[in-house]
Amino acid sequence: MWKNNRIIGLALIIPLAVLSVFGCAKKTIIADEAIIRYQKIEIPRYGKSDYERLITSDNDEVKYNAICNLIPYAPEYARTLEKGPPDESSQETTARDVAEYKKAKEVFGSISKELFCKNKSIQAASLIFITDFSSAYSSKEEVLKLVLDVKTNEVRTQYEQIRALIELSDSDTAIEKNLIESFLDSRCWLIRSMTYLLLGNITSDDYHKRLIKEYKNANEEYDRLFIIHSFNNGYGPEVFDLIRNEVLSTNSDRIRGQTIRILKQHRDNTAVIKWLIHDHKTIGRELLRAILNEYYSEVASPTGTVFFHQLLRSNQQELIGLIDQEKFFQVLYDGLKNEASQKDLAELEMSVRDSQHLSRAWVTYIDHRHKERLREKEQQKREEELKKTVFPKYNAMLEKFLEDSKKLFADAGMDQDEIEELTKAIRELLQVLKEEESK
Question: How many domains would you assign to the chain?
Fold first, then answer.
């Protein structure tokens, strides 16, 4: 449907497009400025290839500046290497393809070596380049190994190393314990705080006892928020005791919100709902709603399926009555349409149908969604008819309008370039219409 709206929109803006050529319409473009964590100087009349040459300079400041100027191109180099070596025997491969691949490989290799440079500024800039490079490079393990091998005690470089690890790590990432502990032991608040963010990405159970102790000793709200985040990739009973206590007793709305958000990360999918079923009468209704709200997006996953199945089977009508039916039903309905999750959700739907509080509302919701799908099918059918009957006629009218416009402009003494510019919008619309008609 949006395609046809776009086409109609194009048809309507043709007069504006023509007027804009004569200066009757003006457009201002405002570009967001990038956040910069490094200093660079752009050398007059120097471009990418010049900075590529300077990354091997003997002058450390010049080398640093060259790397910084190449950081914006890091994802581009990654995409080039991602394609693999060009097949030089293929007629489709150009000399430029071969040269670009060779240069990307050289630049990546050179800057990778600078990760182990004694100059800390060059080392930090190289880490920034490698981090941005990894955003478009699928061989994460290759890049991760480089970052893990960096040895430094300098705050700026450690910051960039941790930032790179955050970008590259997940629950399966193994990071040497001594490295993590050196970050946690840092006298620099920035390094410790960044480490908490990193721990939220990886399996960090080995540090949970330490983190619980640090949390209890922390005086500042912001430190506690960072530490709570470090449990983001899963936790067990001991951390749950801490989080549950903070949900109920903290005076900070931010900490309460963060602990509620992280409740669903408990590795035991039954722990939170068992707690709520047992204690819900002593927990405020708004707090219960906030906790339930975190689980709606998880309905189609084991975390949410187990949670809501046990909630409904508990027959605690006061607790069941707090479910936001619109949010819950929407995710359940969409999940049931997805073949991958149908089997897991079938039992949950049976619990909904058996629920005294939800069964009638669920049937009404299903009926509404079915009617909605029928309307969508009817709309799609109408659009197909539109393409078959209206577009061809409109195309013919538009082609005549194009020819008449060309003649009008030519009779007014305009040259061919001016005519082409003035009729550009019409020709583009014709192209779009013909593409739609051919589908």
Answer: 2
138, amino acid identity = S
Q: Is 236 domain-assigned?
A: no
pLDDT(89) > 80? no
* 127: three-class secondary structure by DSSP: helix
Question: In terms of residue numbers, what domain contains 152?
Answer: 40-168
pLDDT tens column, 272-314:
999 999 999 999 999 999 999 999 999 999 999 999 999 999 9
| Residue 67 belongs to domain with CATH number | 1.25.10.10
Query: Is the pLDDT score of 9 beyond 70?
Result: no
Assigned domain for 429 exists: yes
| pTM (2 d.p.) | 0.77
Does 196 reside within a domain? no
Q: Which two tokens mark 154?
A: 């300098």
Which of 308-313's residues contact partners 24+ apart within 8 Å by CB, and which partners?
Answer: 308/348, 308/351, 309/347, 309/348, 309/351, 310/270, 310/273, 310/274, 310/277, 311/273, 311/276, 311/277, 312/348, 312/351, 312/352, 312/354, 312/355, 312/358, 313/351
Question: Residue 431: inside a domain, yes or no?
Answer: yes
Beta bridge mates, 235: 266
